[in-house]
Design a protein that fits this description.
about 290 residues; alpha/beta; Rossmann fold; 12 helices
Length: about 290
Amino acid sequence: MSKTDNVKGYGNNSINWYPGHMAKAKRMMQDNIKLIDVVVEILDARIPASSKNPDIDELAKGKYRVLLLNKSDMADPEKTAVWKKYYEDKGFFVSIVNSKTGAGVKNTTEIIQKACQEKIEKDRKKGILARPLRAMIAGIPNSGKSTFINSFAGKACVKTGNKPGVTTGKQWIRINKDVELLDTPGILWPKFEDPKTGLHIAFIGSINDDILFPEDMAYELIQILIKDYPQVLNERYGIEIGDGSVSAIEILEMIGKKRGCLKKGAEIDLLKTSKILIEDFRTQKLGKITLEMP
């Protein structure tokens, strides 16, 4: 299958990538939703809107909801605070976490209990005191879900990886006497209505890079950086973009020249340069960056 079969370009169109295993995973979540008390959705703090799967909202109707802004160490902390309040105002219980270091992870039991306080009280009145809360962990691929679970549980109980599709089936994990987790595979949704959503998800590595177009992604990322973090390009690559009249492709060429990404005849290798820029973003070499605001 070609790239164009999977990805409907950028800009005026949208990325459309929905492998069969994701449809199967969604059906599995639908089958198990009746078993759980609360849905805990892992969001990437760099893209708190784009990484929020609208299918989860539909799936979790009638359930208590917790949102975890994960990978907070890679995001702009001031913007993360804005996102936390934004989602709290919408009725979600929200926590800021960094699964790799464990920051904020231990508070998850407390926030799950707060979200389920109504149920806990109902159980208490019925004389049910020892039943652990059952939480479904959901999130898009590469959101750090498995790393979070291992950090929360204090042991390596699920596989982890820096590519989508590592978790392929469901598994129950007993965290402590108060909480049991149902881990689920990371899923996207069939169509991104806003093309920026697809781009943002591609930037963080939640879509297989083999079906993407690095040059197009780099142009879009540069435009975001020019608007919101213009100093980053100078600090990382030693280039001057002046008053903003320099185009994205010209900036990419400047980066390529600085990094020695040259083909025969001194032509700039834009593909290689694009991959460097995207990797620098993903590995935080560009600093703490949030790509969107409410």
